[in-house]
Design goal:
Blueprint (H helix, E strand, L loop, with lengths): L3 E9 L4 E7 L4 E9 L9 H12 L8 E7 L2 E7 L3 E2 H6 L7 H20 L2 E2 L8 E3 L5 E3 L6 E2 L18 H4 L8 H16 L9 H12 L26 H4 L5 H10 L10 H5 L23 H6 L22 H7 L4
Antiparallel strand pairs: 1-2, 2-3, 3-5, 4-5, 6-8, 7-10, 8-9
Helix pairs in contact: 3-5, 5-8
């Protein structure tokens, strides 16, 4: 830590604190993610090792870059550029509401980052507004690769990934073999949330989550679904899909088209990130905002929201850390008032 000075606290993460600091040599403002080893005999958590190894391979404008890491005390520290805000705050800052052209640019940045990760055989597996940070230049960065995994064909993965509201149906049915399509489901949910200002499927349990998805999209049926581990553990009444103008009201047809092409039961039918980047949604009016005209959050944006100096339409009990998941996703989900 001798190369850094701590100047404040950002919040608590899943593995420790996230602090604000300054790199002494460059005077660069940074975020210091302190990872504490709670059980020394068990070593470094796999998720943290995975995050470091993944971030070391990443070099993309729209993915957080690991600047440094080093041991410290009974843990170690990951160093990132300081991000003054995140997509959650940008969505819910009612004093400075995001416009549709700005939404399109944020989503283009997000899909560009996802395309980069997928091209390099990395699944993020936990995309959500809380893990999408915004720099003081207005650039969106994908953060928190603690659940990221390099794709190995034929290898089983855990289905206990992704925050529930953004969890693809194959994961809800316990799939152990899946693809980056789980990330594209999450992207579709995020696009819908940008417009609705509330989550598309805000379930309070895994069963309710699946019930909400089925209620919205109808009874699922795709090749291989009946062989998923949890398919026969619970049954739901047959349901017809709701019209998309009920799920995503008052939006342009092209918005419905891209969301419905991502938020679809069958993983094989979802657009890839590269296909989504070419979608007519980005080439129809209103056109995406030029990158140089995107809102640039001030350095104290998150703190001002947290202190109530700026109004938000759905304030959580405490804003999340900007480089990690919350201490408990369940607490976060319960803390937000549902529509």
């Amino acid at each position: 830590m001798e190369n850094y000075t701590v100047t404040g606290r950002i919040g608590e993460g899943a593995h420790g604190q996230v602090l604000k600091g300054i790199q002494l040599k460059t005077r660069r403002e940074v975020a210091l993610k302190k990872v504490l080893l709670k059980k020394l005999d068990e070593g470094i958590p796999n998720s943290v090792i995975r995050e470091i190894k993944t971030l070391q391979e990443v070099d993309c404008k729209f993915v957080m870059k690991l600047l440094d890491y080093f041991p410290h005390g009974v843990g170690f520290v990951l160093v990132f550029d300081m991000m003054p805000s995140g997509l959650w705050e940008m969505i819910h800052d009612v004093e400075h509401p995001v416009t549709e052209p700005q939404i399109k640019t944020y989503m283009h940045m997000l899909l560009s980052g996802v395309d980069y990760l997928h091209t390099h055989n990395i699944m993020h597996r936990d995309l959500k507004p809380a893990n999408l940070l915004v720099s003081s230049e207005g650039v969106l960065h994908i953060a928190d690769l603690g659940l990221g995994r390099v794709v190995c064909p034929g290898r089983p993965y855990t289905h206990q990934v992704a925050t529930r509201w953004y969890r693809a149906p194959e994961l809800l049915y316990g799939a152990r073999h899946y693809t980056g399509a789980v990330d594209l489901w999450a992207v579709g949910c995020i696009i819908a949330e940008m417009y609705n200002k509330s989550p598309l499927f805000p379930g309070e349990s895994d069963i309710e989550q699946l019930a909400l998805v089925i209620r919205g999209l109808g009874t699922p049926s795709w090749r291989g679904i009946t062989s998923l581990p949890d398919y026969n553990k619970i049954s739901f009444p047959a349901a017809r899909p709701q019209p998309w103008d009920c799920l995503l009201p008052d939006v342009e047809p092209q918005t419905v088209l891209i969301v419905s092409s991502l938020v679809t039961h069958d993983p094989a039918s979802r657009l890839t990130a590269r296909q989504a980047l070419q979608h007519s949604y980005f080439h129809s009016r209103p056109f995406p905002c030029p990158a140089g005209e995107m809102p640039c959050p001030p350095q104290d944006h998150r703190q001002r929201l947290k202190l109530g100096e700026l109004r938000v339409d759905k304030p959580p009990s405490e804003l999340f850390s900007d480089l990690d998941t919350l201490v408990n996703d369940e607490q976060y989900l319960r803390s937000i008032t549902k529509c």
